[in-house]
UniProtKB/TrEMBL annotation:
Domain Endonuclease/exonuclease/phosphatase: 6-73
Protein name: Endonuclease/exonuclease/phosphatase domain-containing protein
Lineage top rank: taxon: Eukaryota
Record GO terms (molecular function): catalytic activity
Listed PANTHER family: REVERSE TRANSCRIPTASES (PTHR19446)
Record organism: Caerostris darwini
Length: 274
């Protein structure tokens, strides 16, 4: 192993180790976490992460502390701080430009280029509909999930701390959904009257409801690089959902993750989305 081959070299390793431990996160230590701790101890490696820091992965699917910074022979003062400051600047990995098709000029280009059955489509509306149908096939069937009336109602209650943790994770300065309400406003509403917001979410969970408006997305079409834009597959759709729905979605994802982990219902060989 190269770490053993160069014992006196300065080592700084940052990656997703998919290992859990109370040493660096807020999840219970698993077998992979114990193995990784033994690995670090045997090679005299330092784990720079702290359980007091925010999660390294945070999204609507949940959060985790599995991205770890490992060092050896590194000064824990200025040297480490300068490196972290360098890799966390916006210009570190170059500047990436993304062009979103929203203005009339770009839509006119789409109008002339999108094809269907080897023929050009004449109108902007038909062009957009063709792209959306390609990426989002229509499902004509119906699915009904009945609620379980025997569920313990105490399980449905969202605690103030649980809601606060999810609200705190809302990313600011992000595009808003169809309702036009950004994350900053949702946060302010919760801070102004947290009990009202908690009651709203509890009522939705108790009744087994997820508002349709919270599941309706605003779609932006992003052209793929080096494509001639003559086919719907040349565009990448981005769905922007209302922030209200993201809060409830994350609440459910957190509870499902806790239930599956606490009951050991996930296979030990499953590493993704945990």
């Amino acid at each position: 192993m190269w770490i053993e081959k160069y014992p006196d070299h300065r080592i700084l390793l940052l990656r997703d180790f998919n290992a859990k431990s109370r040493v660096w996160g807020k999840r219970n230590t698993d077998e992979r976490g114990n193995q990784f701790l033994s690995f670090c101890n045997n090679l005299n490696l330092s784990i720079e992460n702290s359980p007091e820091l925010p999660p390294t992965y945070d999204s609507t699917r949940g959060h985790s502390w599995i991205d770890l910074l490992i060092t050896k022979n590194i000064d824990h003062g200025i040297e480490l701080e300068e490196f972290i400051a360098k890799i966390t600047t916006k210009k570190c990995f170059g500047k990436k430009k993304v062009k979103i098709i929203l203005d009339k000029k770009n839509r006119a280009e789409v109008n002339k280029q999108i094809t269907k059955d080897r023929t050009l489509i004449d109108s902007i509306q038909d062009s957009i509909i063709t792209i959306l149908k390609y990426h989002f096939p229509y499902y004509s069937g119906t699915t009904h999930i009945s609620s379980n009336s025997s569920t313990d109602p105490s399980f449905l209650e969202i605690s103030p701390g649980e809601l606060e943790a999810v609200i705190h994770s809302i990313k600011l300065k992000k595009a808003s959904g169809l309702d036009g309400i950004p994350g900053e406003i949702v946060k302010e509403i919760n801070y102004a009257n947290p009990e009202w917001f908690r009651t709203l979410l509890n009522n939705l969970l108790r009744n087994g409801e997820f508002p349709t408006a919270w599941k309706t997305a605003r779609i932006a079409l992003i052209p793929k690089k080096n494509r001639d834009l003559t086919h719907p597959k040349d565009f990448r759709p981005i769905c922007i959902l209302p922030c209200w729905g993201k809060v409830l979605d994350k609440m459910l994802a957190e509870r499902l993750a806790f239930f599956l982990e606490s009951k050991n219902l996930l296979h030990n060989h499953q590493f993704g989305f945990r």
